[in-house]
Design goal:
Distance between the termini: 54 Å
Structural class: mainly alpha
Helix content: over 70%
Order of helices and strands: HHHHHHHHH
Strand content: under 5%
């Protein structure tokens, strides 16, 4: 039983013990917010990646046999076929049916991810240029230009990177605060030593 308290303490991560010790409530809240934001970002990124990879696989299988020279025309023909109401856009139902025809009907969450990724103007519709980019990415055909789709995707990537950097900076700031507290605390103990030593030197 003498070892029981030690084993109980060991169940708490050493890193958490180190970071929580000596911090104010506000500093601990900063750490918790940084950890939470980092975790949320990781979950969103993972869902987005897995959903986009799955949809890309379907699109790639559907279009992979088409020669690149004919790809633009075939993508447009497919878009027109999927555009059941002839509105020059694909709404959620039309994109769902398009992907279902290619092999897998997406869930609502998966549709949310796809629209967040490809609906550049946020109007709830996938337009021809957005669909074209979606297909080309699925086929790993590099496409970088100054069109609105590429510009928007670059902006979104920059925002995500900035959020990740902010989470890391918040965590680092909290760690630095902890280090300063530890340094300040250790300085108070030995602070009398130089005086004592100096006093002995003077007596000599």
């Amino acid at each position: 039983s003498a070892h029981h308290p030690a084993s109980t303490k060991a169940t708490r991560p050493a890193k958490a013990q180190e970071e929580d010790a000596g911090l104010t409530k506000e500093e601990n809240q900063v750490i918790m917010r940084a950890r939470s934001l980092k975790s949320e970002i990781a979950e969103v990124v993972q869902l987005s990646h897995s959903t986009i990879e799955a949809a890309s696989g379907q699109l790639a299988d559907y279009y992979k046999t088409i020669p690149h020279g004919e790809l633009s025309d075939r993508i447009r023909m497919s878009f027109n076929a999927f555009d059941s109401d002839k509105s020059e856009t694909l709404d959620r139902n039309e994109l769902r049916e398009a992907l279902a025809e290619m092999g897998k009907r997406p869930t609502e969450d998966e549709l949310n991810v796809l629209f967040a990724e490809w609906d550049m103007d946020g109007n709830g519709k996938i337009e021809p240029d957005e669909f074209d980019h979606m297909v080309r990415q699925s086929l790993s055909i590099s496409h970088t230009c100054a069109c609105r789709v590429c510009v928007k995707r670059n902006e979104e990537a920059a925002k995500l990177e900035a959020a990740e950097v902010k989470a890391i900076q918040d965590a680092e700031a909290a760690k630095e605060a902890l280090a300063r507290k530890a340094s300040s605390g250790s300085a108070k103990g030995p602070s009398m030593a130089p005086k004592t030593k100096s006093g002995r030197d003077l007596k000599k």
